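In this section we walk through a basic example: taking a raw amino acid sequence and producing a predicted 3D structure, encoded as C-alpha cells. The instruction is simple. Fold the sequence below.
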Amino acid sequence: MLPDITRAIRLQILDDRAAELLKEVATLPKHVAEIEKKLESHQRQLEHDRAQQAANLRERKRLEGEIQTQDGKITKLKTQMMDAKTNDQYRAFQHEIDFCTGEIRRHEDKILELMSESEPLEKAVKTAEAALAVEKKQVEAEKAAARERTAVDQKELDGLKAERGIILAEMTPRIASEYERIRKGRAGVAIAEVVGGRCTKCNIMLRPHFLQELKKGDAVMVCESCKRMLYWNPPVSLEDLGATAG
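The resulting C-alpha cell sequence is shown next.
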C-alpha cells in the first residue's frame, strides 16, 4: 500500500473522530439549555402556586375582617334595638341583624371553601419546593459534567489537530490537497475501502480491470462513481499468520 494512502487512511480516522467530538461539543450546550429551560418552567410553576397560596390567605384574612365588622354591627344594632320605641323600629333592627348574620355565614362558608382549596395548594408548593431543590442540584451536576466533557473533548481535538498537521506535512502535497478537496465535497469522507470488489461508501461494483490496477498499489486511484480515494487490504493467509507468529 502506498505511504500516501496509509496516511490518508489515518487522516480519515482522525477526521471521523474529530467530527464525533465536534458534534458532542455542539450538543452539550443544547442539552444544558434544555435542562435549564425545564428548570425555569418548574420555577415559574412554583412561583404561580405560591402566588395562588398567598392570594388564598389574603382573601381569608379579608373575609375574617368582614366577619369582625359584621359582628361589630350586630353588637351595635342589638344595643340600639333595646331603645326601640315601636314594633316597626324593633323589626327594622332585627332585619339588619339578620342581614349581618347572613353575611357572616356567607363569609364563613367562603372561608371554609378557601381552606379546602389551600390544603392541596400548600401540599403542591411543598412538593414542588422539594423537587426543585433536587432538580437544581441535578442541573448543576449536569452542567459541571458538560463543562468537564467539553474540556476533555477539546483536549482530544487539539491532539487530533496536531497529529493531522504532522501527517499532512508528510504526504505528497498534491495527494494531501486532493484528500482535502474530496473530503469537503463528500460529507467528510475522502477515502473508502474496497471489499468484495465494491466501494464501501457508494456500494458500486468496480470494473475488473480497475480493481486489478488498484490491487497493484502503484498509484492513488479514485472511485469512478463517488470519486473518493480507494484502498484495498489484501486478505491475510493462514501461512502468513503462521510466519508472522514464528
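Looking at the output, two observations stand out. The first strand starts at residue 191 and ends at 195. Confidence is low (pLDDT under 50) at residues 240-246. In the next section we compare this with other chains.
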